[in-house]
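thread from #wetlab-drylab

HS: before we spend reagent money on co-crystallization trials with zinc ion, can we at least see a predicted complex? here's what I'd submit
DV: go for it
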Amino acid sequence: MRKLVALVLMILFLVSCSPSAEKVSADWTERQNELRESINRIELLKGELPGAWSGDLLPEDGLEKLMAKDSRIQQNHQQRADLIKEASKIADKLTALDREKLSEDQNRLTDQLVEYLRLESLGLDQERAFFNGLVSDEPDEVLGDLFQAVIANRQLQRDVIAGVVAVSTPLPNEPTEEEAEPTETPEVELTPPPVAETPTEPAPPVAAGYRLNQATQLFEPLSESDPMAVLLTFDDVPMTEGAKESIAIAKTLKEQNIPAIFFVFGNYLHEAIGQETIIELHEMGFALGNHAQTHQDLSAMSEEMVRQELQFVNDEIEALVGERPKFFRPPFGMTNDTVNRIAREEGMLPMNWTYGYDWEEEYKDDSAALAQIMVETPYLTPGANLLMHDRAVTAGAIGQIVEGLQAKGYHFIDPAEIDLTGQDIIQSQSGAADHE
Ligand SMILES: [Zn+2]
């Protein structure tokens, strides 16, 4: 009898020590957010690869440049390897949580995320083998392996991200077995909530409706602004042969008074077609952003060079339209604290983007496919920052993209509504390549 009492007491003691379902769920959400951020960074780095390949793999350089430790491809590979290592530690903590206290969705996502990391890591190994294979005698075999891993991995990423987005939308009051009180069902938040802090005091004297979260690159509504909004941006304006595409895009948008930012780079700014494009875009009322002069990786440049790159574009634009750009987007999304600081000093808000597809092999010549993915991608979330380019495929798709986004309940952020004062929560971030 005494033994039984001791046993009961012991059980009661253990039960009282074990974390509550709410606590486990909160831990899960936190780990999950961390993981998601790592995954976003990995994805951005992967987006940069096509640009890195075309930059590093020039026939005249042979393989030496590609294999050099400081080549963009090798650095990208290393950065992803580091991120996966870091993410795996977080995933270990996630799987160590009491799975029985998690919901079905949470458990499913946990498994998917672990699988994502496993495949991502496998993909990296195969990429490494591929590099080594390039300098070996049988490159064909390693190439096949690499492609298989890439395809498997891509599909899985889409599933995982779709799952993450599905669970991140606030759940209806859906009691789980563990929780008797439906009102205490923890809301699963994988993306930062649309309104980070509800400002109780009036906002600073800025007519700003949205603030860019530098960590997620999502726009968060300030005060009463509608969270169901996205920003449209177009990079590499003007391309000599494509300048007319920017104008075509702008005309389509203008018909419905839809705002956007056109990020200008320096390549053709001294040519008539480039200058005419800039003036016309400005006269149509679109915001012009700075996309640097020579479209190189600014994070690898000296401070002085970065400043020159940014000032050149700002000076040229000011000479053409009488105003300096207020937004800056680093080429290939490659940035660091110095680049961000200089952009700020030059009076601009630095921004990357959250998704885009018009440079990917699958979409770069197919307007219908591009329009579909831009609207159906799991990356479409409130506050998303959409990246497109001065390209024929985009000009062909933009009407449908706008229609699709509107049908999903989104409206478009006016650049004039963006808070430029910033909290200066600038984080070092390397982003995806926006093609060549
Ligand atoms: Zn670009």
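DV: Residues 169-206, 424-436 have pLDDT under 50 and may be disordered.
HS: ok that's useful, forwarding to the group
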